[in-house]
């Protein structure tokens, strides 16, 4: 099973929503067998991480009891581990009991949209188990976060929050190298806030931890393009490429294959990783000018 790799130019996190009400694919993978099959498809497309969530965090979403959330995700994790999944398995939760059950089942990553504020004990659990984690910024909670969000300066405010939560996690015993940070695109932000964050990610990257970006199919892309949720792949790719160029390195997406292909080309071009592993063609061997 893969773990966090700081040498890779990027990592792709595939979304596996084991929920009835997620904004994009709610109900499609609520059955454990369907969720496992979908996770395996995402892994085959190149997912480095599989992020399993049993509670929707879309705007206005209602909370789910810990027992129900556990019932949804643990059988999927167990099946993936038993099947020899190569991708790292993440649990998307803010509840201590769910995180513990997921790690017991074989997950090695905790993705907490509350950055350990909802249940601070998760930090000690992650430290004890030697797991990786992601800390995300969110204004309020899913039920209220999109009610007139305001900031003095969204990038400075998010940066200060993430810096404080990073310090909290380290104080709880989690090594810095196991922590990633997420500015929380769409979580208590307007379209303008989201665009400001994407355009100034370098300021967040200055915190020294990998930045995870989750823009896949989100409503702000629909607001910009006029596209419905199922027709936002091009916008998703564009936003992820911009985030990559501005310093992000982990990309949480529904459409793993197309996004990974785009990032591979961007990495090869901008960071010239392709030139380190491939013989560069010369003018004498190049036969086409159209490819």
Characterization of this structure:
This protein has one domain: Dihydropteroate synthase-like (TIM Barrel, Alpha-Beta Barrel). 40% of the residues lie in helices and 12% in strands. The protein has helices spanning 32-45, 66-82, 96-105, 121-129, 154-171, 191-199, 201-205, 219-225, 233-245, 256-270; strands spanning 11-17, 49-53, 88-92, 109-112, 132-136, 179-182, 212-213, 250-253. An eight-stranded parallel β-sheet has the order 6-5-4-3-2-1-8-7. Helix 1 links the parallel strand 1 and strand 2 (49-53). Helix 1 (32-45) crosses helix 2, helix 3 runs parallel beside helix 4 and helix 9 (233-245) runs parallel beside helix 10 (256-270). It is globular and about 40 Å long. The chain starts with 10 loop residues before the first strand and ends in a 21-residue tail after the last helix. Mean pLDDT is 89; it is low at 277-291.
Strand content: 5-15%
Number of domains: 1
CATH architecture: Alpha-Beta Barrel
CATH H-level superfamily title:
Dihydropteroate synthase-like
Q: What would you call the structural class?
A: alpha/beta
Extract low-pLDDT stretches: 277-291
Question: Mind summarizing the main beta sheet?
Answer: 8 strands, parallel
Total of DSSP H or I helical runs spanning 4+ residues? 10
CATH topology: TIM Barrel
Strand order of the largest sheet: 6-5-4-3-2-1-8-7
Task: Let me know the average pLDDT.
Answer: 89
Proportion of residues in helical segments: 40-55%
CATH top level? Alpha Beta
Q: How many distinct beta strands?
A: 8
